[in-house]
Design goal:
Elements (H helix, E strand, L loop, with lengths): L1 H19 L13 E4 L3 H4 L5 E2 L1 E2 L17 E2 L8 E9 L8 E7 L4 E6 L8 E3 L15 E4 L3 E9 L2 E8 L2 E13 L5 E8 L4 E9 L2 E4 L2 E10 L1 H9 L2 E6 L2 E4 L3 H11 L2
Antiparallel strand pairs: 1-5, 1-8, 2-4, 3-7, 5-6, 6-7, 9-10, 10-11, 11-12, 12-16, 13-14, 13-17, 15-16, 17-18
């Protein structure tokens, strides 16, 4: 079980690094920054290397492809290298939204990265982090308006949603989780959010029934409803993990959850 938990932590750690530096719909935030190429889930665990790196500004010639018919760059050719972002240009087509990022290395190497707005393959760690503008995460919130109700929701990670329902002037806030952990031996009816500053939020969830996923891993689906006090606590302290029974799953998207909560609470 210790080995399995270590794998879960590693996967979440890789994704967390990419996301904490991920500019989302604002790739221009990378301009002028120094970035370091890090492992991604795609490069490290799917053994695919890195996608979308080119040697020319027309984005036709792949950099160090794994094979002659592959678009993926060998991980060893890029991992750990640092570059300065010197130009950002929209190169979208009628069918795809893309941005070309120019990367200049200290060793004279110049590459072009095609930013596709997807976090899973995002390979950069930004030195000093990105400076996020106010309301940065507000633009990922989806809104559905019905005659008698409103629904606002944001996907913050695979299977994890932050939602606000408004009906008859009353607002209801909740986070829906889907996490993967070894199966707990006891029936579970509550979950605890772990926050920065050693703060916690424990709520009743109803019976949590783990669903078999793969190997010794199970999928836990549950919903955490938040009151005004909980919302204020998360707005001031990022969520770092969630405890289910005796097991803890790290939460990679604490900054995103916090940002969305701030937007929904306005």
């Amino acid at each position: 079980m210790k080995k399995i938990t270590t794998i879960v932590v590693l996967l979440c750690s890789l994704f967390m690094h990419a996301q904490e530096n991920f500019p989302n719909k604002n790739p221009e935030l990378l301009l002028g920054k120094e970035v370091k190429i890090i492992s991604t889930i795609q490069s490290k665990h799917e053994k695919l290397g890195y996608d979308d790196f080119y040697t020319d500004e027309t984005l036709r010639n792949y950099y160090e492809p794994i094979s002659h018919n592959s678009s993926f760059t060998k991980e060893g050719a890029l991992l750990g290298k640092t570059f300065n972002v010197t130009d950002i240009k929209d190169v979208s087509t009628p069918d795809f939204k893309w941005v070309r990022v120019k990367l200049e290395g200290e060793d004279g190497l110049t590459l072009y990265y095609r930013y596709n707005f997807r976090p899973n393959s995002y390979p950069f760690e930004v030195k000093g982090g990105l400076t996020l503008p106010d309301g940065f995460y507000c633009n990922i919130i989806e809104e559905t308006i019905n005659p008698e109700s409103q629904n606002f929701k944001a996907l913050v990670d695979n299977g994890t949603w932050v939602t606000k329902d408004v009906e008859k002037g009353q607002s209801k806030y909740y986070i829906t989780f889907a996490i993967f952990l070894p199966k707990d031996s006891k029936p579970l009816e509550s979950a605890t959010l772990l926050l920065e500053g050693q703060k916690t939020i424990t709520v009743k969830t109803g019976l949590i029934i783990p669903e078999f996923h793969d190997g010794n891993m199970y999928k836990y689906n549950f919903t955490v409803f938040l009151n005004k006090q909980n919302l204020a606590l998360i707005a001031a302290n990022k969520v770092t993990g969630v405890r289910v029974g005796e097991q803890v799953a790290p939460i990679a998207q604490g900054q995103k959850i916090q940002g969305v909560i701030k937007c929904l609470s306005k």
